[in-house]
């Protein structure tokens, strides 16, 4: 392999990893705030991609606007799902496992609902950055990948800043750490949980537009990347936003290189194997990591 | 997840089971259409897998999304043994169950995980097994699958045709049902329920939680492997795409729609999920949308699926309208509190 190819692979891996990170940090935020493993997170990502694409078909907006549409679409969808479905279930005090199975139901519902709305054909995003190619030394990089990395990192930094420096962000963190005490301090828990879902959905929506522009958008694009994003989030340390991005990038690189060097047929198996190993090597690690971050 | 234990209805249950067996055994004599027998056999095979899942989810409270993997391992083991090695079907059938069970032992460390993490890890296992079936062409035929698997035979008798397969599936399903209902009623079954209700409390009462969970997974995998072997003999053609994680989710749907924690529920759920789209073609397109919504509603209301609905109706009839309306009133009052 030449140096040029190596650089191209690295950038490609980081780009796909940044997308995993964006989806994964939503998993992380939701698990920390509610304990729910949100199986439909990947489907929210898919909705973001679909909203972005449909908007583009109606009126050809520039890419940043499409990204915003995807984020708003994903965020609103997640808030609606949380308020209408999961909140209702929590109020009925059903066991957590029931809610998790309900999120599988939500995943099936969103996927097949989208199949009815958008059809089964994969849809191609228009080329966003037409022909210009970046040259870094001997390597030629597609602007798509470079922009995905830049935008992904920028979004995570923005989210982190929001959580650290705004009152609402601090309230979210407080509610995630100790919901009862936070409630006693006057934090509206319903609103906080909805906002957590909203932010997770917005990040997933952005990931959807980015992933859609990299490959294509289809009704079933969400599930597997969703699970892989969870792998990324666990790898980086569940509960931490920066960790999710870092885990995503590391995982993206591992996946890309193992597909290149080992076997492309087993591309998805690498992530799943890692998932099992991570979960086993730290049987209490998930909780352990998340306690340490408190 | 609610417990549905009907110890007081043991006799009614036995009569119900007997009548169901009679009905299923008589059906081919009355209505012997080949396609009908074919899909009812498929429903029975799915019911066997659903019974295994019911033990894991409905009685031990463990979310397993790995059932499709065991189903696939069983099916491919049976198909390869009978086709390439010419092993008699009964041996291949046993081997299918045993190899599926052994592969679930590989998962034994995973059973230390609790709740959702167990579900995600088993999902990962299913995805890996699907990829193995897809990529190891020398063994599994890759995406072409395995064609013309021989009809099952028992000794010199070849079970050729849909009717013979139908009765084979019926016998295995009834045996599985009886076996799992014995397990559920045993000390082991009570321990599983204790784990479901509170894992820590179960551990504190001296139950070796990890061991019991592993045993539960092994039993479910054994049964699902048997189902896979029947599937190989029934379809006589295997393709990796029958064993993706969607199969696991389909089995999950069967169990929840039928009624969690109920063995008749698992069977009913499998019959509904397999047969309904065959007879309501118009529904086909919206089938999964409906199942998704149903999964959410059932998880929210805590009613035990179809079986819960039947039990509710039966109670409504036996106890009279007045009593049940009073109960509904008190229930709504409780809900308002």
Q: What distinguishing features does this structure have?
A:
heterodimer, A: 294 residues, mainly alpha, two-stranded antiparallel ribbon, 12 helices, globular, B: two-stranded antiparallel ribbon
Topology:
The complex is a heterodimer of chains A (294) and B (337).
Chain A: H1 3-34, H2 41-58, H3 63-91, H4 96-118, E1 134-136, E2 139-141, H5 143-165, H6 167-177, H7 179-184, H8 189-214, H9 223-236, H10 241-261, H11 267-281, H12 285-292
Antiparallel strand pairs in A: 1-2
Chain B: H1 10-30, H2 34-59, H3 67-83, H4 89-106, H5 115-135, H6 137-140, E1 153-154, E2 157-158, H7 162-185, H8 187-197, H9 199-204, H10 209-235, H11 245-258, H12 263-279, H13 287-301, H14 305-319, H15 321-336
Helix pairs in contact in B: 1-7, 2-7, 2-10, 2-11, 2-12, 3-4, 3-5, 3-10, 4-10, 7-8, 7-10, 8-10, 11-12, 12-14, 14-15
Description:
The complex is a heterodimer of chains A (about 290) and B (about 325). With about 290 residues, chain A is mainly α. Chain A has a single domain (about 5-290), classed as ABC transporter involved in vitamin B12 uptake, BtuC, CATH 1.10.3470. Chain A contains twelve helices and two strands; from the N terminus they run H-H-H-H-E-E-H-H-H-H-H-H-H-H. Chain A has helices at about 5-35, 40-60, 65-90, 95-120, 145-165, 165-175, 180-185, 190-215, 225-235, 240-260, 265-280, 285-290, and strands spanning about 135, 140. Chain A has a two-stranded antiparallel ribbon with strand order 1-2. In chain A, a hairpin with a 2-residue loop joins strand 1 and strand 2. The termini of chain A are far apart. Chain B is mainly alpha-helical. Chain B has one domain: ABC transporter involved in vitamin B12 uptake, BtuC (Orthogonal Bundle), CATH 1.10.3470. Chain B is built from 15 helices and two strands. The longest helix of chain B is centred in the middle third of the chain and has 27 residues, at about 210-235. Chains A and B meet through helix 3, helix 4, helix 9 and helix 11 of A and helix 5, helix 11 and helix 13 of B.
